[in-house]
TrEMBL record:
<dbReference type="GO" id="GO:0008237">
    <property type="term" value="F:metallopeptidase activity"/>
</dbReference>
<feature type="domain" description="Peptidase M16 N-terminal">
    <location>
        <begin position="89"/>
        <end position="201"/>
    </location>
</feature>
<dbReference type="GO" id="GO:0046872">
    <property type="term" value="F:metal ion binding"/>
</dbReference>
<dbReference type="InterPro" id="IPR050626">
    <property type="entry name" value="Peptidase_M16"/>
</dbReference>
<keyword id="KW-0378">Hydrolase</keyword>
<protein>
    <submittedName>
        <fullName>Insulinase family protein</fullName>
    </submittedName>
</protein>
<feature type="signal peptide">
    <location>
        <begin position="1"/>
        <end position="25"/>
    </location>
</feature>
<keyword id="KW-0732">Signal</keyword>
<feature type="domain" description="Peptidase M16 C-terminal">
    <location>
        <begin position="240"/>
        <end position="423"/>
    </location>
</feature>
<dbReference type="InterPro" id="IPR011249">
    <property type="entry name" value="Metalloenz_LuxS/M16"/>
</dbReference>
<keyword id="KW-0862">Zinc</keyword>
<keyword id="KW-0482">Metalloprotease</keyword>
<dbReference type="Pfam" id="PF00675">
    <property type="entry name" value="Peptidase_M16"/>
</dbReference>
<dbReference type="GO" id="GO:0006508">
    <property type="term" value="P:proteolysis"/>
</dbReference>
<dbReference type="InterPro" id="IPR007863">
    <property type="entry name" value="Peptidase_M16_C"/>
</dbReference>
<dbReference type="Pfam" id="PF05193">
    <property type="entry name" value="Peptidase_M16_C"/>
</dbReference>
<comment type="similarity">
    <text>Belongs to the peptidase M16 family.</text>
</comment>
Length: 985
């Protein structure tokens, strides 16, 4: 049933244009037939009436009747439903019940290798035709068209935009050819092998080694310990067409296949197409049962409960310390009943209680930076309760005692009724929000839910069912029952643990084992205060402000409000996303407000500023006051503004606005969050040099901003000199200065929101605005004679390369910046072909465009790839060649269409969400031109000419302005040879 609450992913695309509403049931595109022949015959395998559906066999969970289920004679099962979010899209998932745990020793990596080969060539798609074909259908490769291989399955994913019945029919034909009849030829293997090996190389390094050793320890003796989906170089290189065909024949069978489809077309068409293209699929040979994945086993001779088994000390000099131990139990299939899910909910409450106590202990000065308890069923291999934490320093045993002390108290004493009520309220708001937002749940998410349910061998349920089950059992969540479930969570077959440290002298496996066996004293101080806090008890911001202007913007129903104190707001109240309200507060001048010396304190703000609290409320009190509420508090620093943002609902909007306004009016300066974030930054810095990506995350912005120290990552030496007092001196003045813009879009009452704004942001004292503040130019570095070379201390076969060109910023040329997005996508397709498809030098190169709108400079075009050190010159040469060709020769019409059509569809889908509009109109109260410029969005992103692209390339991809960065292993030299691998052009 998957009743456990999940984090809701927030979409973050940037291309809104129109706002089509979700299609109602009566508007569903009906099954379309031509005069000569229907696209698909009527489905015959649907499970209708009182017939038990395959997903709910033996379960008393109410069937989600939005889904239609079918099971064909050959064993293939499917689930289909209508969904109009985003309008016109169809999400298709094809799951094969075979992952890396199904591989034999000589087949390690075959499941993933086969996933790649299915995209290489198949019955209806020639060599290399898959990506261009999906692009012509409007799907973006890598996001709309993708696949994944896990330990237990392989899933092929297609999110088809603007999906007519004919496009869906063609897609099922192509997908059936891929799954049923891939072309596993020697030439295809030879072409794809370097790409798979590049993917393995790019994932490698210290972090991957540490994770692999941890997994080997926790799952000792099980297949999970030694079968990463990526495989090994030896087995991958030893693959032949015959051995891969054998793997395909053994596992790619109809009885191992589940297809889920959710989209904006009559689901009867989906069912008919599945039966048409997969109904005659007959597997070769006898069915093969999945291998035994193995169980966690206690040490020989163990007599006590919870014996400590395998332990490990993992030494990686460049990684921060962390400790993980697991209470391991065998995994067994369950009958997914309401009673079973009620038990899961009590488990979840128990874990939430412990995690809240652990966080409070860390905030109060514990020996660890963070700690978490999490039960999980891992790859049908173990039912485990994991405990993980990061020691603040070398005293890992003190940190372990701290963490275990908190857990020991939870195992000794029942929680209070107030603590339980707090967690119930938190869960309730999550489930209630899911009900409110069910009508805008995307088809892709729904299709994925079926895949996940099949993978964990459970069912799926509607949000209404989940909420009903939860509210129907809350009276059963008593202190005694929570204590019982807490004890069960920490009772297992064996306990295993691994300590990751940069210093080999700190511990040995025997030391870790002894520490886990040590009796600990229950930390009774970990229990949290039960007192409640109400927003009604908080002081007002000030006298409610006067509205001096309220008028329509001329764009949809968006109106602009201005208060007497200068605060401006954009409001758009509409119900197309029920239960969702997006709030965005922009204020001040962002990076422009700081001097070069402020850089280290800027870096700390994302974690420390919000955590410092407001007024008399620290982070713990804010957590309590927002219990059972849908509220948030994200913070970021942009080039020309600071931003608070949150997703909330109309019931909580007034208090959400109070939190944001109070941060400006009465900021609290608690030193603990500052010190904690200094410690976190110091720990993180140690790991930057473990791989090329880490080096770039540390230095790229600094280098591409011409070594502007505001964008530098502070070193441990710099961090050692930072203080809470210095943090306050840096941030207190900038919180009090600059104009304020509030944007509220979503399902709320506009008049009530204006009143709420009057009592919060309208009640602020007029803010000082420095009219003489000149925006400092965000500079781009001068071109160099040779690339800037950085080094890392990771694997000797890992490197990265970057080529960047300056572009611009601001609103004046905003339409031009949208055209640059087309250019960069053209560049990206060519670079992908050159580096991934032709040479196999890099798994996934990327080209992107960044154009800030709140300042007039700082934009750039950036090309990036991770590759082998010897291939860095290839990347530079290919990037220069592609840039020169784009500037000298107009692109072909088909190549241009394969970029503009996916962008057009991306805009259509993006336009259905408030978030996209909000991002597009950020800063519109400062520069009203942004409102008018939304009207040209579709044209700007999707209409152009080959000649226009050539002119843009000539202007912006100037070799005299490019800046190159290479990240290579420490001790190596950057090769200056010309590339040996040629593109054949």
């Amino acid at each position: 049933m998957s009743i456990r609450p999940r984090a809701v992913a927030c979409l973050s695309l940037f291309l809104p244009f129109v706002l089509p509403m979700p299609i109602a049931a009566q508007d569903v595109v009906q099954l379309e037939q031509t005069e000569s022949e229907p696209l698909a015959p009527p489905p015959q395998a649907l499970q209708t009436g009182d017939e038990e559906t395959w997903l709910y066999e033996g379960s008393d969970i109410p069937v989600d009747r939005e889904w239609l289920f079918g099971e064909m004679d050959n064993g293939l099962r499917y689930a289909v439903r209508h969904n109009g979010v985003p309008p016109g899209q169809v999400a298709i998932r094809i799951r094969i019940d075979a992952g890396s745990l199904h591989e034999r020793n000589k087949e390690r990596g075959f499941a993933h290798f086969l996933e790649h080969l299915l995209f290489r060539e198949s019955k209806y798609l020639g060599p290399g035709e898959a990506i261009p074909m999906w692009q012509r259908l409007g799907a973006t490769f890598g996001s709309d068209t993708n696949a994944e291989t896990s330990f237990t399955h392989t899933v092929y994913k297609l999110d088809l935009p603007n999906a007519s019945p004919e496009k869906v029919a063609e897609s099922f034909k192509l997908l059936s050819g891929m799954v049923r009849e891939p072309k596993l030829t020697q030439s295809n293997l030879a072409a794809e092998l370097p790409i798979v090996l590049a993917e393995k190389r790019e994932r490698g390094g210290a972090g991957e080694r540490a994770a692999e050793q941890t997994r080997t320890t926790l799952f000792a003796g099980q297949r999970l310990a030694e079968r990463l989906p990526i495989g090994t170089p030896e087995t991958l290189s030893g693959a032949t067409p015959e051995t891969l065909q054998e793997f395909h024949r053994r596992w790619y069978r109809p009885e191992n296949t589940v297809i889920s489809v959710a989209g904006d077309i009559d689901p009867m068409l989906f069912a008919g197409l599945i039966e048409k293209w997969f109904g005659d699929w007959q597997a070769e040979g006898k069915h093969v049962e999945a291998p035994d994945f193995g169980d966690p086993v206690a040490p020989k001779g163990a007599k006590s409960s919870n014996p400590v088994g395998e332990t490990a000390v993992i030494v990686e000099p460049d990684l921060p310390r962390s400790f993980t131990y697991g209470v391991m139990r065998p995994w067994r299939p369950v009958v997914d009943t309401i009673e079973y899910n009620e038990g899961l909910l009590v488990d979840a409450i128990a874990q939430a209680l412990i995690n809240r106590r652990l966080e409070a202990r860390a905030r109060a000065g514990g020996e660890y930076l963070y700690a978490q308890v999490q039960q999980d069923d891992i790859s049908r291999s173990a039912d485990a309760t994991f405990v993980s934490f990061a020691p603040l320093g070398g005293d890992w045993q003190g940190a372990l005692d701290d963490v275990r002390g908190v857990i020991a108290d939870a195992l000794k004493t029942p929680p209070s009724d107030e603590e339980i009520a707090r967690e119930i309220a938190e869960f309730d708001v999550v489930f209630q929000s899911s009900v409110e937002q069910a009508s805008v749940q995307s088809g892709a998410e729904l299709a994925d839910n079926i895949v996940e349910a099949v993978d964990i061998r459970e069912t799926t349920a509607s949000p209404e069912t989940v909420l009903q089950v939860f509210r129907g059992m809350t009276e059963k969540i008593t202190p005694a029952r929570v204590l019982e479930h807490t004890r069960a969570l920490f009772d297992g077959t064996v306990i295993r643990g691994a300590y990751l440290t940069p210093d080999a002298s700190e511990a040995k496996p025997a030391t870790v084992r002894t520490a886990l066996l040590k009796k600990v004293t229950a930390d009774e101080n970990a229990r949290l205060a039960a007192s409640t806090i109400s927003f009604a008890d908080l002081p007002p911001i000030g006298e409610p402000g006067e509205v001096v202007a309220r008028q329509p913007t001329g764009l949809f129903g968006i109106e602009q409000i201005q208060f007497a104190n200068g605060v401006k707001a954009l409001l758009w109240a509409h119900g197309s996303e029920p239960g969702r309200v997006s709030v965005n507060v922009r204020f001040g001048s962002g990076f422009q407000a700081f001097d070069a010396a402020d850089g280290p304190y800027i870096n700390l703000a994302q974690g420390a500023l919000v955590g410092s609290g407001i007024g008399e409320l620290g982070q713990e009190e804010i957590d309590r006051i927002t219990t059972g509420r849908k509220m948030g508090f994200d913070f970021e620093v942009d080039e020309g503004a600071f931003v608070f943002s949150a997703q909330t609902r109309k019931e909580d909007l007034a208090d959400q606005l109070y939190l944001f306004a109070a941060k400006l009016d009465m900021p609290r300066w608690d030193p603990n969050p500052v010190q904690r974030n200094i410690a976190a930054a110091r720990i993180a810095y140690e790991s930057y040099e473990t791989n090329p990506g880490g080096v770039l995350s540390r230095d790229l912005e600094y280098l591409l901003r011409d070594k502007d120290t505001r964008f530098a990552t502070p070193t441990p030496q710099t961090l050692a000199g930072l203080t809470p007092e210095g943090f306050r001196e840096t941030w207190e003045p900038v919180l009090a200065e600059g104009p304020v813009e509030v944007i509220i879009f979503g399902d709320f009452d506009a008049d009530a929101a204006v009143a709420d704004l009057s009592r919060t942001f309208g009640a602020l004292e007029p803010r000082e605005v420095d009219a003489d503040l000149e925006a400092s130019e965000i500079a781009f570095p001068a071109a160099q004679e040779a690339p800037t070379v950085l080094t890392h201390r990771g694997d000797p076969d890992q490197a990265a390369a970057v080529v960047a060109w300056p572009s611009g910023g601001g609103v004046d040329d905003l339409r031009l910046s949208r055209q640059l997005e087309i250019l960069t996508q053209l560049f990206n397709n060519r670079l992908l072909e050159a580096m991934r498809e032709r040479s196999g030098a890099s798994y996934a190169p990327n080209v992107s465009s960044n154009w800030p709108t709140d300042v007039d400079s700082g934009g750039r075009i950036t090309a990036f790839a991770q590759l082998k050190p010897e291939d860095v010159p290839i990347f530079f040469e290919e990037a220069d060649r592609i840039a020169a060709e784009l500037a000298s020769t107009p692109v072909e019409a088909d190549e241009l269409a394969r970029v503009t059509e996916p962008l057009r569809q991306l805009i259509n889908r993006a336009s259905t969400a408030n978030q996209f509009w909000l991002y597009q109109l950020e800063g519109a109260t400062r520069d009203p031109r942004l409102i008018g410029l939304t009207r040209s969005l579709m044209a700007d992103y999707s209409r152009t000419t080959p000649e226009a692209m050539q002119a843009l390339a000539a202007r912006f991809l100037d070799p005299a302005k490019e800046y190159k960065i290479a990240v290579i292993p420490e001790g190596q030299q950057l090769s200056t040879r010309r590339p040996e691998v040629q593109t054949g052009r």
